[in-house]
């Protein structure tokens, strides 16, 4: 039945630096902080402009913000292990909202770029989750029907949007629950 599993990156495979940064400095992803994130995710602005924008909003020097984002982040090794096992029997895809250069560099730095058959990054494709266009693009790249794909994301509206298109979706909380959910769907890995 299922032929592919698609994973979000930030909040599933690796912690989300932006969420961590906002929390550490007492900000919320609302208003201009949200607008900046969306602009970066769609590659409307470069990362240096993102840091400058955050600097203007927070009054923290852009160089300090970039240094915080460049610190090594927490990779969820248990999720990576699941992806490696799944990849033995199913197609795998990365489906992430991000600035393309930023995420590609991060995948390469952490030697994760060979984990996926397809890498769909909002900044490259011009659509971002939770838009239907993003998920339709994912299905086209995988050359599969919605009923043949499982999608994993930590953001509830992304899960709801994928489900509305017929893609079985899992709201990510942790690797143990993810493994149980995948097994519950009948995936063998």
Protein architecture, described:
It is a single chain. With 189 residues, this protein is of the alpha/beta class. The chain contains ten helices and five strands, in the order E-H-H-H-H-H-E-H-E-H-H-E-H-E-H. It has a five-stranded parallel β-sheet, sandwiched between helices. The two termini are 14 Å apart. The model has no long low-confidence stretch (mean pLDDT 95).
Quick overview:
This protein has 189 residues and is α/β, with parallel strands linked by helices.
What's the gyration radius in Å?
Answer: 16 Å
The main pleated sheet reads as:
5 strands, parallel
Give the H and E element order.
EHHHHHEHEHHEHEH
Percent of residues in beta strands? 5-15%
**Which percent bin holds the helix content?**
40-55%
Low-pLDDT runs: none
Report the structural category.
alpha/beta
Strands ordered across the widest β-sheet: 3-2-1-4-5
Global mean pLDDT: 95
Strand tally, please? 5
How many individual helices? 10
Distance N to C terminus: 14 Å
Shape: globular
Which key features would you list for this structure?
globular; alpha/beta; 5 strands; five-stranded parallel sheet
Give the SSE map.
Elements: E1 4-7, H1 17-24, H2 31-41, H3 47-58, H4 62-70, H5 77-87, E2 91-96, H6 100-109, E3 118-121, H7 122-125, H8 132-142, E4 149-153, H9 156-164, E5 168-171, H10 175-184
Parallel strand pairs: 1-2, 1-4, 2-3, 4-5
Helix pairs in contact: 2-3, 3-4
